[in-house]
Amino acid sequence: MKTYNLQDIMVPLSEYATVSEEATLFEAVAALEEAQQSFDKARYRHRAILVLDKAQQVIGKLSQLDVLKALEPKYHEMLDRRHLWTYGFTAEFMKSMLKDYHLFDGPMQDICRKAGAQNVKKFMHWPAEEEIIAATASLDEAIHQMVLGQHQSLLVFRDERIVGILRLTDIFATIHQVMMACER
């Protein structure tokens, strides 16, 4: 049986979109686009930007959803990291909130310009312990951690440093390859 090394599946930090903790949201989005252009076209595209401190250590992650939330400051007031659907709110009620709270009140260009000038630290996600995995962990450990935590990615560390990101899409591609090999 083949052993799967997370370091072979993950995206190394050097190939991932990163920005300084002092960067603006605009700079983060630009870094994501630049990373997409140079990334292996056979793999799934990046969906996040890793935020680095002054010592070039990963301190957070900014997802595409985080960028969308940044467009409307009132989301911060409305959401406490829980999904409104879980409270039984209907789609109709959720839609009414757009009007009632005056969300996205103004031209999209102005909204994007204002959000783009904000610092990434204001919107980034600070990874919790369960969102980090050792480079020496097994593939089944990574799958288990992703499933139970419902994570889209895990930060991979070696020698107390984040060295890459293990994305759900990369694990899925590996599982797909294994399944296809089984059918032969």
Which features does this protein show?
4-stranded mixed sheet; 7 strands; alpha/beta; 184 residues; globular; CBS-domain; single chain; 8 helices
Strand order of the largest sheet: 1-7-6-5
What's the name of the CATH homologous superfamily? CBS-domain
Compressed to H and E, one letter per element, the order equals HEEHEEHHHHEHEEH
C-alpha Rg (nearest Å): 19 Å
What is the number of helical segments per DSSP (H or I, 4+ residues)?
A: 8
What is the CATH top level name? Alpha Beta
Low-confidence stretches: none
Mean pLDDT: 87
Task: Give an overview in words.
There is one protein chain. The protein has helices at 6-9, 25-38, 64-70, 74-78, 91-100, 108-116, 139-149, 168-183, and strands at residues 11-12, 18-20, 48-52, 58-63, 132-134, 153-158, 161-167. With 184 residues, it is an alpha/beta fold. Strands 1-7-6-5 form a four-stranded mixed β-sheet. A hairpin with a 5-residue loop joins strand 3 and strand 4 (58-63). The longest helix has 16 residues, at 168-183. The protein is globular and about 55 Å long. The mean pLDDT is 87.
